[in-house]
Amino acid sequence: MKSARYFGALTAITLLASACGSDSKSSGGDALTSIGTGEKALNLIVWAGYAEDGTTDPAYNWVKPFQDQSGCVVKSKIAATSDEMFQLMSTGQYDGVSASGDSSVRLIDAGLVSPVNTSLIKNYADLSSFLKDTKYNSSGGKNYGIPHGWGANYLMWNTDEVTTPPDSWNAVFDPASPYSGKVTAYDAPIYIADAALYLKTAQPDLGIDDPYSLNQKQFDASVALLKEQHKVIGEYWNDYTKTMGAFEQGSTVIGTTWQVIKNLASNTDKLQTVIPKEGSTGWSDTWMVSSKAAHPNCMYMWMDYITSPGVQAQVAYYFGEAPANPKACAEINTLYADATHCDVFKATDEAFAKSISFWATPRKECLNGKGSDCVPFVDWIKAWTEIKG
Amino acid sequence: MQFTRRVRMLFGGITGLVLAFLYLPLAIIVVLSFNTVSSLSWPPKGFTFRWWRAAFHSEGARDALVVSLKTATGATLVALVLGLLAALAVHRFAFFGRESLNLMIVLPIALPGIVTGIALNAAFRQAGVEFGLLTLIIAHATFCIVVLYNNLLARFRRLSPNLEEASADLGAHTFQTFRYVTFPLLRTALLAGGLLAFGLSFDEIVVTTFTAGAGLETLPIWIFRNLSRGEQQPIVTVVATAVMLMSVIPVWVAQRLTSDDGPLTGGTR
Amino acid sequence: MTATTLPSSPGRSASRWLHRHPRARLVSLIGAPAAWMLVLYVGSLASLFLTSLYRLNEDGSGIDQVIGVQNYRTLIDKSVYLDIAARTIKIAVLVTLLDIVLALPIAFFIAKVVKARWRRLLVAAVLVPLWASYLVKAFSWRAIIGSPGGVLDKTFGFSPNYGEVGLIIVLAYLWLPYMIVPIYSGLERLPDSLLDASSDLGAHFGFTFRKVVLPLLFPSIVAGSVFTFSLSLGDYIAVDLVGGKTQVIGSVVYDNFSADLPFAAAFAVVPVIVMVAYILGIRRTGALENL
After folding, report:
1. pLDDT on residue C1
2. pLDDT tens-digit readout, B56-102
3. Which pTM value belongs to this model?
């Protein structure tokens, strides 16, 4: 009987101990006042293709020159979704992240990132003005990040299988699709916005304006569409190499992708991308500094390095996106004999940038300012599991 | 026992098929490690040693291997000690909570890795412990204990209690008896269990994902990270092939150890 | 006979003391492992359960440490979670059955039919695949069953492709050695004389196998099933690679770990309940000793 009491007591203590240790909400740190000596290390969370060190393709390596000149040894962790980025940042073990709009605001609100002293970044002045001081990289008058680049999510298809080039997202939402079983979609709750964006044109009486500001009716319609789409989906993807392999071997022939997937695929000549007529969702990425950064100096050095024209040129060309620094455009021509990159990606076209529905975190207070009964992100997360069945 | 030819052929045939089933994907991996093209596609385009040379020079793979070896060794040692203590206690004493303890020890291996993983992750974070080699060894040891525990308990059940009594009658005290009589009889069980635990820890990925932290990479984590990266994919197949080949030795050794149960056990075999 | 005095030493005094205090002996043995398991493992499970009672705040930027059963209510209300759990259990059962069917003949062949000198080689042959990386095997299968373009498709023109069927085959493949080993150990312990006696009494092989061998092997089969069942119940990596769009418990827990930890914790409780119930249920069969 004594042992029972001991067991009971021990379990109770353990429970109490775990209850007491809480996920403390840390406040964001302070911005650096000057860049000191490098700390010899840098831990980054990045989107695939943002911190290439030659291991994917030996011709693309902009991490090594950075390491050589700054002495900061870079360790980068590739995250597949913004949610994963947010979770990794909350461990406090990284110095910085290339956050899209649907994680940046959450990071700011959770106190996981510090304000950034943009005057310390030499190249900041050159960056496109429409990327600065936006809703997703600033808050309360403070700047929280350095723009990296932006782009759209494309509709990609295999020209051997899909003989008529599609011009509408209907190609992936059609439940009677001839490519049933070979369609793919991005595996994250934020993809619901893609459905909403399609319905904005396809069902105008729903009155959808901003795909991240959806009232319950609009949200339910989007979810219903995605449940229909589920029937024709072969695989969902968030690891870009998984869908790239699928496109290469032919088990996927059409779906939402990033430009980098087409760029790197071995059958790239058979693949085509387009922004359909309904428009596209996309992402505008910002380098943010962790409030628990162990190597803030190296992080600032990185942010300065990655926004310099030569490096911006490499990243933008490799990934297939619009660089934040327009001076990269000329560099792309010098490095890769491609004079049209920035035109193709409309790097300096502010109107075009505004037409892309950049990823953002939906909140109850509608992001478009038209009310406070929008469906918050936590419900998007739940709905996504239901959609996938 | 004599089996009819028909039975022998039937079972032999199925065995052959099952072995082929087991080894076919492995054979594909080995073949692809010599492929000239760097993608996991079939059929292979050519033959080259290029990836084997590259793997040899791969710092990432080497570092990850070292971390894996450290983790597995640490976890196995902890599991050895704790498993031995627990097996001794359970075998010799009937105490309240014996059933519960048995259940607790089995749980880490009976519950899916993802549950163990996120439970430990949540617990470490709430306790404010920083993730690293220590948390990793702790996590791995927790599911390795049961392997040693079961092996040792099975061995205890086969040992005759007379041996220890005889030793005491001859004047040895508890610790001497353990050192000179009990422990030698346990050696092969410890080794076999230890090898199995080592293997479990070495290839474990799920719990590791949740308890290793940002900077630490075991070999499975390295493999996971690189299996999707173009140029690295074939290097991963090389590493996998190498590990498989090297593992033949411990498997063979463990086999010899467990099937030799000599007269010293005094058991009922 | 004269009594000899034994040499004294600290070990001897400690041994004498322990002999007089059996409870201290027990505590000294059981203390460390019990504390480890209780605090570290049971404690962390308790911590997980506690997390499952919390909830995510509205825009997903943090966890509200407010205790409530909202996550469990969602699990019960929305039918999709029941569907996913049922699907996962179904897959786990099918994988287990497939593994039993594949493991029995090979284990029997090695343990009873072949000559002793081949035995060690064959057992080693079964164990070596265990040491091949789980990930690499899963990726290899991704290349094998893809359709079109996979190995099976290119060789036979036919392939299950990524989906539930492919997943069951791959999971059965991955866990097969874990089923073979306990069954083999069980067969090793089965005396040959029993089989001889059965055939002496006039039974042909099929009858002997069904009525003599299988019942005696039951604990070993159940022991193997604990592995295959639990491994299938929680898997998410192989599911992602070869399962197509199939969602299982593991994938929901893993996906939500980043986005909604309390909910992931709540759903993770499901396989815990299933496995604990299973383990408690099989205690009687003596399978736990054969793990």
Report:
1. 53
2. 888 888 899 999 999 999 999 999 999 999 999 998 888 888 888 88
3. 0.88
Any B CB within 8 A of C119 CB = yes
Residue B128 touches partner C, C-beta closer than 8 Å: no
| Enclosing H/E stretch for A192 | helix A192-202
d(CA C121, CA A31): 65
Judging contacts by C-beta atoms under 8 Å, the chain B residues touching residue A94 are: 214
- Pairing relationship of beta strands A271-274 and A254-257 according to DSSP bridges: unpaired
Q: Is C70 exposed, middle or buried (0-12, 13-18, 19+ CB in 10 A)?
A: middle
Angle at A285 between CA C63 and CA A349, to 5 degrees: 140
User: Which residues touch B263 (CB under 8 Å, ≥6 apart)?
Assistant: none
Close Cβ partners of C243 (under 8 Å, ≥ 6 residues apart): C162, C163, C164, C166, C167, C251
Cβ burial of C210 (10 Å; 0-12, 13-18, 19+) is exposed
**Residue pair A208/A281 in contact by the 8 Å Cβ criterion:** no
Q: Which residue among B97, B128, B225 places its CB closest to the CB of A7?
A: B97
CB A320 within 8 A of CB A258: yes
Minimal C-alpha gap between A137 and chain C (Å): 15
User: Choosing among A91, A94, A243, which should be mutated to test the B contact, i.e. which has the most B CBs within 10 A?
Assistant: A91
DSSP β-bridge partners for residue A78: A46
Q: Taking Cα atoms as reference points, which of A30, A78, A95, A130 lies closest to residue A347?
A: A130
Q: C-alpha angle with apex B216: B210 to B222, nearest 5 degrees? A: 85
Return d(Cα A302, Cα C229) in angstroms, integer: 47
Q: Is the dihedral of CA C77, C83, C88, C89 positive or negative?
A: positive
pLDDT 10s digits, C78-96:
999 999 999 999 999 999 9
Instruction: Please check the confidence at residue A20 and state whether its pLDDT lies above 80.
Output: no
Q: Strand, coil or helix: what is C262?
A: helix
**Residue C168 pLDDT > 80, yes or no?**
yes
Closest residue in chain A to residue B39, using alpha carbons only: A245
Task: Give the A window 185-214 contacts with C, CB below 8 Å.
Answer: 187, 189
Task: For residue B266, count other CB atoms closer than 10 A to its CB.
Answer: 14
CB B173 within 8 A of CB C16: yes
Residue for token pair 């059609």:
A174
> CB-based contact (8 Å) between B1 and chain A?
no
pLDDT at A321 over 90: yes
> How far is C-alpha B114 from the geometric centre of its chain's CA atoms?
18
Q: pLDDT category, B186, cuts 50, 70, 90? A: confident
CA-closest candidate to residue A91, choices B18, C121, B255, B216: B216
ipTM: 0.86
Pairing of β A357-358 and β A281-290: parallel
Interface of A with B (CB under 8 A): 1, 3-4, 7, 17-18, 21-23, 43, 54-58, 75, 77-78, 88, 91, 93-94, 239, 241-242, 245, 248-249, 264, 266
Residues 6+ apart with CB under 8 A from B142: B108, B116, B120, C36, C37, C40, C41
Q: Report the C-alpha gap between B33 and B49 in whole angstroms.
A: 8
The pLDDT, as a whole number, for residue B260 is 54
Judged against a pLDDT cut of 80, whether residue A188 lies above it is answered with: yes
Measured between CA atoms, how close is C116 to chain A, in angstroms?
A: 46
In the numeric block, the tokens 């000793």 are attached to C289
